[in-house]
From TrEMBL:
Residues 24-267 form the Aminoglycoside phosphotransferase domain. GO terms for molecular function: amino acid kinase activity; protein kinase activity. Belongs to the pseudomonas-type ThrB family. PROSITE patterns: PROTEIN_KINASE_TYR. Pfam families: APH (PF01636). It comes from the Bacteria. InterPro entries: Aminoglycoside_PTrfase (IPR002575), Kinase-like_dom_sf (IPR011009), Pseudomonas-type_ThrB (IPR050249), Tyr_kinase_AS (IPR008266). This is Aminoglycoside phosphotransferase domain-containing protein.
């Protein structure tokens, strides 16, 4: 996909949206899957995104989800798409579908403290509770499918051979192959007992904003991967990317996150039991997703190696602590 690299392209695009010529345009610091820019018009700020992962139809489905959430009375904001003069909230461009949303104030959360983790967990619970019963939109993905089924990686064995040819170590490639095989065998088991609904799909800490003064969650971002999935997958992703599992006091920090989540909706027995399996599947899926981007020329080999290292760490950690995590999750963080 061609990236919109020049200001002339951006100025033309913002003019189509009705922004005046004095609108300032700066590239956003965050964002790896899309081209993202900050727009400033006087005291007003907006976010322009040129999408490299979705079709216009998929973005339209995302926007309908956001519209429902904005009227749900949540204590935090979600993106608000801005319509062009044509009435459309998605415009096709040569570089990909483009959208504009109003800027949401806030800063990235510092999740080293228990209070911040508990707030993050509660926000994840509130979002899941509000999305309960939301009708699936046409074009949404399905997070229930086998995580090994990646469009850019049709066969893990072939990927492993390509990684070896690119001089990733034989030991590391063998680990990826072995864990992927394990996940492929474990994935179908038990899925039918897990509550299913529309989920966010990428509830990482990087997609969370908090109030700079109070630390309360002020916004949840980037619903581009929203789809039908197991409800516990959003909670699992939030925990996985929070960093809570990566410290010596992981039980204390994880308990704080789980208490926040359980204050809205406690996990049931099947969800608590599935948590280690889903965490491992997420780590494999993350490695394969980055490998797919590398195969398509959109990521560096070092990024793939980093994801495989993360997968190795997650595997070792779950082998040692998976049982404790299940018990803590079943107790809602009060173990």
């Amino acid at each position: 996909m061609t990236a919109p690299a020049d200001l002339e392209f951006l100025a033309t695009l913002t003019a189509v949206w009705g922004f005046p010529s004095g609108t300032t345009i700066t590239r956003a610091e965050q964002g790896t899957n899309n081209q993202t820019f900050m727009l400033r018009q006087g005291s007003l700020r907006f976010v322009l995104r040129v999408n490299q992962t979705q079709s216009a139809a998929q973005i339209g489905a995302e926007h309908r989800i956001l519209q429902r959430l904005r009227h749900a009375g949540l204590p935090f904001q979600v993106p608000e798409p801005v319509a062009a003069p044509s009435g459309d909230t998605v415009l096709e461009t040569a570089a990909g579908p483009a959208t504009v949303c109003r800027w949401i104030p806030g800063v990235r959360p510092d999740l080293t403290g228990q209070t911040a983790l508990e707030r993050f967990g509660r926000a994840a619970g509130l979002l899941g509770d509000e999305m309960l019963g939301m009708p699936p939109e046409d074009g949404l993905g399905d997070w229930r499918v086998n995580p090994l089924a990646h469009p850019a990686v049709p066969h893990v064995g072939a990927l492993c051979r390509q990684l070896r040819a690119a001089e990733i170590s034989a030991e590391r490639v063998a680990r990826l192959d072995a864990v992927a095989h394990r996940v492929g065998q474990e994935w179908p088991a038990g899925g039918g007992a897990l509550p299913t609904q529309v989920i966010h799909g990428d509830l990482a800490a990087s997609n969370v904003l908090v109030d700079e003064d109070t630390g309360e969650v002020s916004g949840l971002l980037d619903f581009e991967f929203a789809g039908v999935g197991f409800l516990v997958q959003d909670m699992m992703a939030a925990l996985f990317y929070s960093g809570a599992l990566e410290t010596r006091d992981w039980q204390t920090r994880t308990a704080a996150f789980l208490r926040g989540y359980a204050s809205v909706r406690p996990l049931d027995a099947a969800e608590a039991d599935a948590l280690p399996r889903l965490l491992l599947a997420r780590a494999v899926g993350s490695a394969l997703s980055r490998a797919g981007r590398w195969l398509n020329g959109k990521a560096q080999l070092g990024e793939v190696a980093d994801r495989i290292r993360k997968l190795e760490d997650t595997t070792h950690w779950l082998d040692a602590n998976g049982g404790k995590l299940r018990s803590l999750a079943a107790a809602g963080g009060h173990g």
